[in-house]
Amino acid sequence: MNTWFPVAALLAWALVALASPWLPLVPDRIDLSGILVPPTPDALLGRDDLGRPVLDRLLVGARTSFAVGLGVVALSTVLGALVGGVAALSGGWVDLTLVRIIDVFLAFPSILLAIALAGILGPGIDNVIMALAAVGWVGYARLARAQILSLKQRDHVAAARALGVGPGRILLRHLLPLAVVPLIVEATFGAAGAVIAEAGLSFLGLGVQPPQASWGSMIRDGVGYMLVAPHLVLAPGLAILSVVLCVNLAGDGLRDRLDVRSSQR
User: Fold this and answer.
1) Which of 161, 150, 185, 190 is closest to 70 using CA atoms?
2) Domains delineated in the chain
């Protein structure tokens, strides 16, 4: 499958998110004469219920989604890889305890746990990242544990143990680097889930707070005007759809390229 288009779209999204502070955008400029104006040459995506340009707020909201997706995936991958690696390498009661903790987290819907944690921590992008990472690490932990269990009996690990190398060094230097490929593939799909989860939390008022722009909060503000100004919901909704679709397509392409059996066929 050709992955150039989704990768190019994701790079454009990342570029817009990183460059938005330096772009000539006015996402918070209120224009009472332009309330609920449909798309025009002056406002390509129209204006919202306060007369603010939807396009400018959409571009600024891309930075929020990018920061949450990247932050959640980074924290979840690191935490999950360490927990899963320690469980697999230690074995015995340590492995049993950590597996039971993972099972407890998996027994509850992750989005409900994220909502509860976000409500306890309070609104804000940092708290959203912490709440989503606190429930998102379990998938990476299970994957890392399965990979380490199949790798820890290899000859180079036995040689390192014979030379007196400690378990921590064995995990970080000899095992996790070999398990990083499936974790990266899993992280691509996790980024899509983080973008959707952030939009959901912002829709509920648990994410970034006004006047800061977020795709989820833009949808929440536009729901009441669906009949008279559908562009308020369609613009951020299509943005979320396009980003999540591109992330999933890129993840599928990356998985196919890294799959030895698929490449041999």
Assistant:
1) 190
2) 36-264 (1.10.3720.10)
